Amino acid sequence: MPWDLIGNEQAVAALRRALETGAVAHAYLFAGPVQAGKATLALKLAQALNCRGGSVTAGAVTYEGAHEPCGECDQCRRIAAGLHPDVQTVTIQTAEDDAQRRDISVDQVREVERAVALNPFEGRSRVIIIDPAHALSREAQNAFLKTLEEPPPRVVFILVTDSESALLPTIRSRCRRLELRPLPAAAVCEALLARGLGQEQAELLARLARGRIGWALAMASAPAALERRADTLRDARSLPSLSMAERMALAERLAAGFRRDRRALLDTLGEWQGWWRDVLLVASGAADGVANLDMLPQLREDAARHQASEIVAFVQALRDARQHLEENVQSRLALEALLIQAPMRSAARV
Asked: Does any domain span residue 347?
């Protein structure tokens, strides 16, 4: 299939209809969970708008193009490789000290404004992908709003987000919204089996993915990622044995890591949350629902060591900490508050 996207057929169908009828919007909002296929779909739309053949209308201008991304022509290949001069991804930049900035700045938006004022250099449409769009600072959103209100011709904006509530309502209202939903575990497993994975590994990754097909495919193609997962879960299991001083030292190290790579730490906390959620399921007699299928003995050990109430409290604390970090709360304070609430080592659950 030219779009080559697993699941989310409704979103693909909506874009196909827009391309076929000449009703491509000047701005799209692709919303959904992390690694649900939003960035992939954005690149596919950029390819379809610039692929050779057929006819396409974009930004109220009709010109020769294609209704499907062929994936083979020079335009499609260069877009896939990130080398096309008319397809630009705007994201959070890295500072000079190698620390990751917290947001997409107004200066970046002004650079986009200068770029879209020019005709496409060699493609048929200029495509600006903003990912993650919820990282736009408030000043940047206000500046970008002016461009959305008077969109230039031959330009399509694609805003990619897993937190659309962080965007101004006025920005959301000027975009055509497409939602990408998590896939059922069975669909993820089937896709992994089709790519040659064994049944056991496919079932494990499908459970761990929690509907995120992009995550599952990335893990399937990177065996070292499963080794890193083992390290992350070992850290999650070790938290109860840490003294309070050790917890504070760990919070400091995690905060330093967060300043360098925000997504990596958020992913780590997500895996910790998944582990302790599984421990709670085992403690509640619902082991059939766990994601970490390959570690049931360890899950049972941890379930026997802790009261269900403290596990529930820590799972909630992990959820809150991730939200606070995404909202730019002071990272060390958020992580210290989290680790204080981690379960304490006890002899057995009664």
From this structure: no
